Amino acid sequence: xxLLMTTILLVISALSWLGSAVxxxxxxxxxxxxxxxxxxxxxxxxxxxxxxxxxTYAAIRLREMNQSxxxxxxxxxxxxxxxxxxxxxxxxxxxxxxxxxxxxxLVRDYFDHFGIELEKVSVLExxxxxxxxxxxxxxxxxxxxxxxxxxxxxYSAQLAKYPYxxxxxxxxxxxxxxxxxxFGDFVKKYNLEGAVDIIAMFNQGAGxxxxxxxxxxxxxxxxxxxxGALGGFLIPTSHNxxxxxxxxxxxxxxxxxxxxxxxxxxxxxxxxxxxxVVETPxxxxxxxxxxxxxxxPPKLDMLKGMDLDESERALFGxxxxxxxxxxxxxxxxxxxxxxxxxxxxxxxxxxxPQPAVYVINTTRAPGLFxxxxxxxxxxxxxxxxxxxxxxxxxxxxxGIPVEPPEFVQYSDHSPFLLTVPxxxxxxxxYRHLNDLQGHRKTYYMSATFNxxxxxxxxxxxxxxxxxxxx
Length: 470
Prior knowledge:
The chain is of the alpha/beta class and about 475 residues long. It is built from 14 helices and 20 strands. α2 (about 55-65) runs parallel beside α14 (about 455-470). This is Amine oxidase, flavin-containing superfamily.
């Protein structure tokens, strides 16, 4: 992704392994509006920091609600975790980030707003040949254990006990103990072994799923996802998920500042406006807005430069995160109709220890494969690609005469799933987090507040907009 930045922004970006939508320093200087020319002061009802799935949806919906908006996005396009590669050899669009959407009215309405047609696809009935291989050694792995459909029915019955998990983290007090169990213990308690393999396929990016807290696993692998897995998901008929964000960017027009980073924010409940100082390719701008939306992961290293108070800093400082990476590569020797699922031959439920490749998927472009990879701690691009390459080369031991992958695209989706320990959840963390909505004119709308799932993010935002922005 190419960023058009001034020299100072390049220095700021180098200070962080990820780069964030707000930047250093932590303590902003006094804001003196007299230092800015009138054309560099932009007034809106709402300023949105982050133009991914959450920020883009919020912007489109707010404009429909007759509110003026401005979106600040650090990249040169909208879309966040949506990654699309236009293969020059075949002129084929290949998605390697967000792939599918649940078949829900809200999803259909959103795409219909832009006149984008959708079609249903079956994920479990794809035409590719699946090989289960231990990519540490190339040893073939056996089939998944247990009866998947019976286990999914039992898992769904457990989900039905907690309808409040459908949107947000509106947890009761006390929090049900089962939700705080390590997911591996939850699986054993309710005999869900037959569902682990499919849950692992859908909950990529969630870290060690057996050690992950059950609450997050159930939020991630929800009833809507199960329905999609069994009945089909939606995709654009163009097979290009970036089409949605291109249409949104065109509609928003000058209300999007791309290649831009917020360096300071100024929020005071006694003032009529909140302020954000933004470095853009055309110089420094000041955004003056009645409300501020943070649509990026609320980790402290992502929020440098934001004038956080003690309560905000204390809550955001508790988050841990997983890391997730995707790549597109040509892999000579790998059959074009073959999917490789990484499964260990010596672990519980055959789940590969991380860091590890999750899966090597076929794509619409002949000879082009998507490689999905996860880790607990962040890894540099060269290290991830090196590990991907070693995993691919182990396929030779499985009788597949592959050559080293030739990478054409790579995306780092870290920080991915944000979590806090069970004790924090038990002690009311999410109750306090929810109390931040509207605090100091600021609202939070990202996957962290619901689930890493576009449809679920949009559903959460829809509710919050209706209660707090009408």
